[in-house]
Amino acid sequence: MHALILLGSTREAANAHSGLGDFQEAIRLASDERIEAARGLALTALGATLPFDSDERNAALNEASDVLRRIGDRTNLAMVKVMIAGDAIERGEWLTALAAVVDAADEHLQLGAVAMLGFELGQGGVDTARISRTRRGALGRRRAAGRS
Fold it and tell me: With 97 labelled, which of 38, 118, 124, 127 sits at a CA distance of 20 to 30 A?
């Protein structure tokens, strides 16, 4: 299974979307053999490869998150949470994005991977700014309508 993941990654580097079949086969084999660590990695690789905000990508990343959390793979879980946050940012779902970024940062903190926090802090800042701007706009509209 790990060989299929590596093969798929190599094919992806050479030609976009050419490794999808390898990742899907690795997921199938890992599921059949009940090897959750390999399944989590294959789902992560598949999710990272699929187009942003596609239903298949969202499903793969959410399933990867569940598997990685269950087996205690904090490093890859944090990476998946960052991808989930990126997709939520693209959709303008700021609270979802912020929650995913906080989850990723928490995993990195627990691992002692402080150097990894820069990206999460940047993403979190963008999310917080957008949430604040959205809420201020809503408050201003309510005040203008005479309903504070």
Answer: 38
Q: What does the alpha-carbon distance between residue 126 and residue 92 come to, in Å, rounded to a whole number?
A: 11
Q: At 96, is the secondary structure helix, strand, or coil?
A: helix
DSSP string, 21-77: HHHHHHHHHHHHHT-HHHHHHHHHHHHHHSPTT-HHHHHHHHHHHHHHHHHT-HHHH
| Confidence bin at 139 (pLDDT 50/70/90) | very low
Angle between helices 36-49 and 20-33 (to 10 degrees): 160
In the structure, what pLDDT confidence band is assigned to residue 104 with cuts at 50, 70 and 90?
confident
Q: Which of 32, 30, 33 is nearest to 41 (CA)?
A: 30
Map residue 128 onto helix, strand or coil: helix
The identity of residue 139, as a single letter, is L
For residue 57, give the nearest of 70, 43, 71, 67 by alpha carbon: 43
Provide the residue type at 34 as one letter. R
Nearest-angstrom CA–CA distance, 54 and 77? 20
